[in-house]
Records
---
Amino acid sequence: MTITKLARKTVQALTPYQSARRLGGCGDIWLNANESPFANDYSISCNRLNRYSSCQPEALLQAYADYAGVKKEQVLTSRGADEGIELLIRTFCEPNKDSILYCPPTYGMYGISAETFDIGNKIVPLTADWQLDLNAIEANLDTVKVVFVCSPNNPTGNLIDRTDIERLLAMTANRAIVVMDEAYIDFCPEASTVDLLADYPNLVILRTLSKAFALAGLRCGFTLASPEIIELLLKVIAPYPVPIPVADIALQALSPGGLARTKFQVLDLSANRAYLQAGLGMLEGVKVYDGYGNYLLVEFQDADRLFQALWENGIILRRSPVPNCIRISVGNRDECEKTLAFIREQLVQTR
């Protein structure tokens, strides 16, 4: 018996999520992980590190509740939204019996998290215009306890139709939890479904400080839901999920000054996104899809060759599961200008 064979068969067969850091690369321009280009300063105190943190720091819950427009009892904080995904699966799904449902192309961790816990995956692809196929979803709800929907969707960048979201919530009432992944909603807050929490007890919303708040390295996420769901999640979460420095920095980011800075930086990134979209859209043979997050999905005639050329010249982007497409994170203006110039040069050379 080898060590590997001691592991669960599910784990032995599992293909891990290929995050930007796992894929590696070497370069000066990193536009592959939907990170913010802004590195903001925070103050850290070390005088409480000899003590465990609170499981759910009250001040942090209240600060995010105020920001999101919900009650403190509707908020849970965790190690990124990724932990929120796992908590929901562990809480609502019975191993080797229940399933989750998600709609690719979308974030890959839904399926991997389910596999890790021996939960089935039901896959209903998005429609040709990247919207929910409600008829197909309804036909596949047997054994499904959790439905994941990402809006703005990663990697496509589009918003999911709000009417369809409400129809999905009604369709799954008393049958399944619907999880709206709003990791990128801070770039288009008007599209949030947070107001629907009052009408649909089966709605859960995932949020993060990784994107618009420029705190990907902090690993701080939030789950918004009814108090009943929050209480269930608290039964399975780790005893001390939020380190003291994480809570302290998150509180600074959610302070009036921190929120004002985030708002300014979001406006800056939105302007850079528009710059990239306009510049790429002028190139022959290039299709730029509308994006509402801090990234754009772009279709090229020879995406493989272009991606490799960018990679070899230190411009690290992200290949997409969408055929012939590359996902480009929105960086600072200098990064966007250099990326656009290199792509333009490469396309001219191949004519």
---
Amino acid sequence: MTVTTFKLKRRSNMYRKSKSNGKGTTYDLRQVVTNIKWSTDLNFSAGELTFDLIQNAHQIIPYTGDIITFRWDHHKIFYGYVFKYEVKEDNTVSVTCYDKSRYLKNQDSIVWQSGTIADRFNNVCKRAGINHKVVDKPTHKVSAEVCDGKTYFDMVKSAIVKTRIATKHMYYIYCNYDVVELRRAPYKKLKIIIGSKSAMTGFSYAVDINNTANVVKVIQKDTKKSQAKSATAKQDDPKRTSFKSASAAGKSSEQWGKLQETINKKNKANHAQMVKQAKDELRKKNRANKELTIDCIGHIDLVAGNAVTIKINDLGKTLKNCPILKAEHNFGTDYNCHLTMKVGAEWLGSS
């Protein structure tokens, strides 16, 4: 497989050779491009393409904002924009590009009424001026929310996390060439198997409990009002402050020891609701974090949001429909992928 097309298109009138050419000047970079790397990340990050240009007698400098299109073996891989270029003394230019979802890092202040993830997604994409599509439409409505000075990514993320907690369904944002899509994970359960004796060239399997909790306390702070008014009145007075709590504990403390986390109670929650809050948080936190990284032969469907079966003979494990959190593709004569995967039910690592 080889690079089918790799083009640069001038986006601004400033750099066009002919102002009468409405489409702008386009350059074919196939003969001068090298070190092509494409990354997709489930954790609300834009797709990234990096590459180097080997300059010759006719130098081509990609300017910020220029459009880069890339097809591999006739498959549409990337459509995006130059955000950084670096000219080096060895006569090469290193370029970093992002796809259209990069514009969801724009900040705004919006009062959201009750609605679905799709409602927020369509709204912010229109504000960012990018082509978009809802592939999998969620029905769950999240409550109204005020988002002040937050990114569009964060606004959609808030709805995605709330929907996942309520429905167990995981949604994510993915840029499909030049259209930003709202998808439900896994988007594809790939039929291919990556194994020790097939496509896998290396792996790392890590288990840790650094962010685990097997005891959760929900705290309610009570402060009696004081008649005194002084410069220190805003500080908690030990004589007038007390705490009430509700707890939930898991059996893993027998193996891991006591790992406790405290959180504040939700507004106006009674004791029974505090107990439920503790149990809900415990279900999320009382588990080891398991992360798998895989090096394998390249395949264009190995992208964030899809799932693939992994078979590792050294561990005696077969992990069916293992979620891909991040994928790095290195294109060349030796096309290969580096995958970061989550072992278990949780798709979004940072939520």
---
Amino acid sequence: MEKEIQKILIIDDDEDVLFAAKMLLKKHVKEVLIEKDPRKIPFLLNQSSYDVILLDMNFSQDTTSGKEGMYWLEQIKERDPHAVVILITAYGDVETAVNALKKGATDFVLKPWQNEKLIATIHAAAKLKNSYNQVNKLQQEKQQLEESIDAPFKSIIGESKALRNVFTIIDKVASTDANVLILGENGTGKELIARALHKKSRRKDNSFVSVDMGALTDSLFESELFGHKKGAFTDAKIDRAGRFEIADKGTIFLDEIGNLSAALQAKLLNVLQSRTVTRLGSNEAIPFDTRLICATNEDIHSMVAKGNFRQDLLYRINTVEIHLPALRDRIEDIPLLADHFLTLYASKYKKEGLKIDPSAIRLLQKYGWPGNIRELQHAIERATIMSDNVNLQSDDFFFLNNKGPITEQSDSMEDSFNLDEVEKQTIQKAIQIHGGNISKAAEELGLTRASLYRRISKYDIS
């Protein structure tokens, strides 16, 4: 049978105790280290980590008070706050035990010990250490994940007047708990703005939870947002907290909220009014304290006028509205964005020193960018990969001429300024170019497959 406990350290100045403990425990532990001199504890802790440390309370300098043991316990916990220490003594009493536990000891045993009890105590302590390790690992993974997620959002790139107006609103709103609705086309950076609001808020040290409402089916909506109890439905094998619970004390970002059906709008409104959620399969209302940020690329006010979106729900979510400009409305930011993405992808694809020619910048500024910043990012990455030039030239962006409006070459769209018509024709052209392959067309447009399918349905594209 494989031994679950990896390593134990035993510190006692009685060699007989050390020998007896080692003989007993080596049947249950892969490696048992013994040491009679407590002054070597700092060195031993620097050398390795231990599942459990057995520490005598009384050494030769003081054989009855337990003060030496308490001192070395403090030294161990100072070096490793998650160290699991079991104190052993022949002079135990309740007061000593309580003091030891207060100072961080995990348990307390008396000499002479009962073998079965000592083994059981060590196994329990090792499980606690394993829990500490798992929590620490999860915290590190969470930190790395958050750093990875936040990396693209460390700065919002741009100096245009339109973007500075957005910055002004963020500065005014971020420190409040006002609900914010972010409006803008796909690819304009709505989640980036939502994260900026969170980072500048009083909730910045708590969770930021992002939910793509457009990707949630009606059947998954309640389970994902409100949670469920074990057995609530076929695949509910464990209790699970919903996104609102997870975002408690933090921020929840509901993206593509304009895609909710009338039934789901009613359920969401009820939760926002009551500030409680009830998990599927439960009758218990769970309160939450969450800052709400929503976003949509739809003309939500027109949707309200047409009866496609509840007016009372709109009032709940748009205490403050932030309108993000399309990239074609902030062309002065294109050089900055292009340089940023070029630096990113030149490093990624080992083409350091790659530059972008002014003629290429002029071309990028003339293009209509139906996919906005996301499309620009994709274009820079594609050109970086394919170009053999030291500087990216206009020819390296030849593919832009085949898939969307150039602002000075919009004959195919008859100079239409109707955004719905522009979007419809762009989608049709992308699907045509990729031979009807929806996945490739969606990637080209900077959309998810679900988002593209919704637009195909919206515009009745066959």
